[in-house]
Amino acid sequence: MSVNVGILGGTGAVGQRFIQLLDGHSDFELVAITASDDSAGKSYREAAKWRVDSPIPDWVGDIEVRETDPQAVPDDVDLLFSSLPSGVAEVVEPRFTEAGYVVSSNSSNSRMADDVPLVIPEVNGEHLDLLEVQQDERGWDGALVKNPNCSTITMVPTLAALDRFGLETVHVSTLQAVSGAGYDGVTSMEIIDNVIPHIGGEELKMETESRKLLGSFDGTEIDHHDVNVSASCNRVPTLDGHLENVWAETRKDIDTDDARGAFADAPTLDLPSAPDPLIEVFENPDRPQPRLDRTLGGGMQIAVGGLQNTPSGLQYNCLAHNTIRGAAGASLLNGELLVREGWV
Amino acid sequence: MSVNVGILGGTGAVGQRFIQLLDGHSDFELVAITASDDSAGKSYREAAKWRVDSPIPDWVGDIEVRETDPQAVPDDVDLLFSSLPSGVAEVVEPRFTEAGYVVSSNSSNSRMADDVPLVIPEVNGEHLDLLEVQQDERGWDGALVKNPNCSTITMVPTLAALDRFGLETVHVSTLQAVSGAGYDGVTSMEIIDNVIPHIGGEELKMETESRKLLGSFDGTEIDHHDVNVSASCNRVPTLDGHLENVWAETRKDIDTDDARGAFADAPTLDLPSAPDPLIEVFENPDRPQPRLDRTLGGGMQIAVGGLQNTPSGLQYNCLAHNTIRGAAGASLLNGELLVREGWV
Amino acid sequence: MSVNVGILGGTGAVGQRFIQLLDGHSDFELVAITASDDSAGKSYREAAKWRVDSPIPDWVGDIEVRETDPQAVPDDVDLLFSSLPSGVAEVVEPRFTEAGYVVSSNSSNSRMADDVPLVIPEVNGEHLDLLEVQQDERGWDGALVKNPNCSTITMVPTLAALDRFGLETVHVSTLQAVSGAGYDGVTSMEIIDNVIPHIGGEELKMETESRKLLGSFDGTEIDHHDVNVSASCNRVPTLDGHLENVWAETRKDIDTDDARGAFADAPTLDLPSAPDPLIEVFENPDRPQPRLDRTLGGGMQIAVGGLQNTPSGLQYNCLAHNTIRGAAGASLLNGELLVREGWV
Amino acid sequence: MSVNVGILGGTGAVGQRFIQLLDGHSDFELVAITASDDSAGKSYREAAKWRVDSPIPDWVGDIEVRETDPQAVPDDVDLLFSSLPSGVAEVVEPRFTEAGYVVSSNSSNSRMADDVPLVIPEVNGEHLDLLEVQQDERGWDGALVKNPNCSTITMVPTLAALDRFGLETVHVSTLQAVSGAGYDGVTSMEIIDNVIPHIGGEELKMETESRKLLGSFDGTEIDHHDVNVSASCNRVPTLDGHLENVWAETRKDIDTDDARGAFADAPTLDLPSAPDPLIEVFENPDRPQPRLDRTLGGGMQIAVGGLQNTPSGLQYNCLAHNTIRGAAGASLLNGELLVREGWV
Predict the structure, then answer these.
(1) How far C115 CA sits from the closest chain D CA (Å)?
(2) Which fold has domain C150-321?
(3) Residue B6 — φ and ψ, nearest 5°?
């Protein structure tokens, strides 16, 4: 099986991660890359300032970049990944879904829309069925699926595992890498020898997206979980890898062994990019660390450590690679699920 | 008034901060510096590898370093500051207090001992009276006062202010600078492009020291506060300045204006090194930041920002300079209080 | 004596340094700040995102920002400092000089123009007399003086001192701080755990500006020095302070003591911002270091170290604070010289 | 073919790189690891604090660490790699060579000894024949081969290529990563927001080792090249990858195309760890960069960029991974050459 895929907005940092991950992918063949109008017509090599730490694949360098317009994308593309700026995505993604394309998008727009599934395959893959409602309501032939924000993805697989004990309250403090803001998002003057204790909109995303992801789909709509998440988000001088300090309070008392058991039971899917296990637990309290552990499982695993019982709930740290599991890899995995579930 | 002071263990990172802060001090005159035996007899300039970012004061460079022994310290020294390694301090500090010296110590040993006052002057200066019990029980002519750990000091002045609303539960996540581990404590290979989500013993210090500091002294002993503090401590790639994300839950409902009022009411003391105000509140949510705000009030102020109401309590960030307010400046301020209260 | 001064383009990183340096200046009173049109009319506090590590002076925060236009600047301003982007400066600075203003500019345009003095007061203050030629040729009532590029300023005072031995060839490799590129010039993704071995145009600036600075003025024009400078410029992850590795070959053989003597003889001027001595020589081979030594002499000193004789010439390192001695402080010192020499 | 190999001093940073590189090696099977006495008897997993960014191979974790003593190493080990501290190596390596072992060592001792070949296979593999002299003179059954210092290796392959034009004078300024000093070699307090313009002994190593490497072997001794190398060495805040600014002056005039040709002609060996090409030339002047390009060719390639003609010679930058091509990979490649040349 080979599925022809394209990338909307493929020259930026997340776009380059898509290309790294698609290079040699077992099921997907990259056949189209779009970008802004001034890049259209150039070779990808020329249009993108390649910045990741493996050389640009030759076959990608030669691809001619297209306009981000349904007319410009060949008909035999079955699946589109989107890493467009959210303002652009808001306007452009519906044009593609109207034209019949299935879009797996990392852009932050429309994530909380009632008829848009927000999916982490190992957590709530069944929310994909919301696409029937979406197609009905919007009259689309195509479909739009979103993955959550990078800081949300890092934590929610662990919360889903703990929800068997009745998740009630979560405090989470994040130490987020600069790549999460995009290539130009954080200047060096801002972050060398410094921390920025604020990331616009991030805390709200963690609080609301978590509730939707952990919610249940009744065939018509998503019933959001009532967990109360309180997030404090910080930017720190790391390149990749979001580390998060979590306290989770549950209805039933749990100890660290209960948590280990729950994490070990987290599902592993039979999809090309799905890690096994989903959650890797470290016993050394000084792990996971961003630089040493962000590429576990090809950057798709959730690393957990520092498990402790406290009077304020189960305390632990979790870590994931923010531009792989938290962005391009998230959309890719959603794409793999869309194929398996017959939407592509 | 001029008080002759000395430093026990004055060649290390905290010792150098003591010297910076004593240079030009209105009331204290530095007359003696001790260090390990292999430094004794050398000039301070020769013994210390001066590493702070202002030149070594000439008059200090010429001081001859002494052995860390009561015999080696001149009799006219009225007050000693200690930045000895805690293992050494455990053995040596009692020798000085037995010999009649008053010691204001930053070392971590004995902080939780029943008869040792653990003091932040603006928070619990009245705990100094415990020294009468100490002298009685130990038969000392001198006295030993401790200041808390740097991460504790950063947070507790804000907690003390909020306790008027009945402090019950605190979650705190720290982003601590490398200087907190001493000059050689964190290697560059460990921390460049990285975070270490564990600092040995630090979480327990924050939890237990906070209870003692916020406790009340009944004339005989300290009744520790029953607040439940749960800390998650991280080392980040900053040089100086501990930033902390706090959630404080109180018996009475409070909003951010209540908190602003409480912070504004925090006491300011009439001591040379006491900042005014004690707590500076920023309204821009991306402040305070370690690099930009750690030297507020000469490094003695507590900076607060990001005030929010959440269902999980009052959320905010606080920041202090860990080797000034959190170490050398803390001991110095305790020394100033000891003088004012007649113990020196 | 008090001279009313203004800043053209005062909201950026160099503009903020101007304000830090003018706060409390003995001779200059800041009375006007201009910026781009969308800032005009706002208070400085509102228009500038204040980013330096001392609080914004209150009296400056209240100044109303003006348009960068001669009409908008009050007549009683005697001297203007310019930190405009060079493209803007190219157009705007002549409008001010035509209108009679004396402009001491840090912008890179016109530095190599035949009738524009490029000045480091301790090196070639006599080049100011070129202003007579400038006013004649251009018909200006005002005058335009430039200071060189930050990487040039760091090195040229040492070269000027060594020129008594007949400077012939210079190899210089720079390790430049990110602030040299402006607040947004280097992204964190580019420089964390990295070096960028290229700074556009920088090598040529060092090579040509050095020749002009070391040249002689014959009353009509500057005769450029024939020293052959070959520069290799690198951006490194430091915030402030350009460090440079220099090899200087001279006609006469010199040893390190000759060099020490020459550096000690470097002139110190009787101007408010002039450091004394101009050049500070370190004997410890691991100094100067950017973080520890960049603020020597208020950031106006040139620190030198690592002096060695080699078969390829005298080898040494030099360091200066790139946004003080290398930018705002450079223009300020030129302004002080302009006043002393009667041009203001 | 499979050769049994061991590592002397295998628990440190370079030892861990050896293990990464030997994991899956086509010709070598790792069968023994030695370390200091207090590690002997432990499993490798227990003895080594594993710090590289790929998980410890399981089969290595279970190896029992041995004493660094010929008696403790099994007889069927054919080749030993050494990453012992040089003081230890000075004493211990001869015990192994006397006992008949062939040792390929990265330790800095004895590199300049007359009868010890200092080898980069692509540069001076023929120097291996000096081992006959060594065995004769020392009465060893075994043999000792050294690779040069990491900063030397980065540059010398480019100098060897240019020597066809008659290499006369080299100026080189280095920007070296912290890993070059070993895991604990540079503290975070020393290097965050800083550069250290001095690395003890490094400049001399670059100057003398280069001459030996570029020298010729006449069957009896090495005739050192008479090139005059002048080095200025700096430590910068990068984790891995030494970047070097080079100016090379040659007897014959050369332009950048001549240099490109010479670099393209650099030999590529048919050895498992030898890169092809040896030297990769970048045309974009801002490359190579340490973080982006240090893993080229598995970390064994020399990256070159910024080629320019200057009046002071050919100017360019070169980069290599200091703990792969500059340390463990260098010894490994020497080991592969020793096998091919029949010494093992």
Answers:
(1) 28
(2) Dihydrodipicolinate Reductase; domain 2 (3.30.360)
(3) -135, 165
What's at B149, amino acid-wise? N
Query: Chain B residue with minimal CA distance to A291?
Result: B194
Are the CB atoms for A117 and A126 separated by under 8 Å? no
Q: How many CB pairs under 8 A join A and C?
A: 53
Give pLDDT tens digits for C235-279: 999 999 999 999 999 999 999 999 999 999 999 999 999 999 999
- Residue of chain C with shortest Cα separation from A49: C190
Subunits with at least 3 CB pairs below 8 A relative to chain B? Answer: A, C, D
Say if the Cβ atoms of B292 and C53 lie within 8 Å.
Answer: yes
How far apart are the C-alpha atoms of C189 and C175, rounded to whole Å? 18
**How far apart, in whole angstroms, are the C-alpha atoms of residue D147 and residue D119?**
5
- Residue A242 bears catalytic tag: yes
Please report, for chain B, the start and end positions of each structural domain, with discontinuous segments joined by +. Answer: 3-148+327-340, 150-321
- CATH for the stretch A3-149+327-340: 3.40.50.720
Per-residue pLDDT for chain B (344 aa), expressed as one digit of tens each?
A: 799 999 999 999 899 999 999 999 999 999 999 999 999 999 999 999 888 878 899 899 999 999 999 999 999 999 999 999 999 999 999 999 999 999 999 999 999 999 999 999 999 999 999 999 999 999 999 999 999 999 999 999 999 999 999 999 999 999 999 999 998 999 999 999 999 999 999 999 999 999 999 999 999 999 999 999 999 999 999 999 999 999 999 999 999 999 999 999 999 999 999 999 999 999 999 999 999 999 999 999 999 999 999 988 899 999 999 999 999 999 999 999 999 999 99
Residues of C in contact with A193 (CB under 8 A): 239
Q: Strand, coil or helix: what is A60? A: helix
Q: Provide the 3-class DSSP secondary structure of residue C188.
A: helix
Query: Across the interface, which of C53, C192, C193 has its CB nearest the CB of B291?
Result: C53
Q: Per the residue annotation, which of D127, D225, D233, D242 is the catalytic one? A: D242
Question: CATH code for D3-148+327-340?
Answer: 3.40.50.720
Smallest Cβ distance to D184: which of B179, B187, B191? Answer: B187
Q: Which residues of chain B lie closer than 8 angstroms to A192, CB-CB?
A: 291
Phi, psi (deg, nearest 5) at residue D9:
75, 60
Shortest Cα distance from C39 to chain A (angstroms)?
22
ipTM of the complex: 0.95
* Marked catalytic residue, from A127, A225, A233, A242: A242
- Whether B3-148+327-340 and B150-321 share one fold: the answer is no
**Cβ–Cβ of C291/B53 closer than 8 Å?**
yes
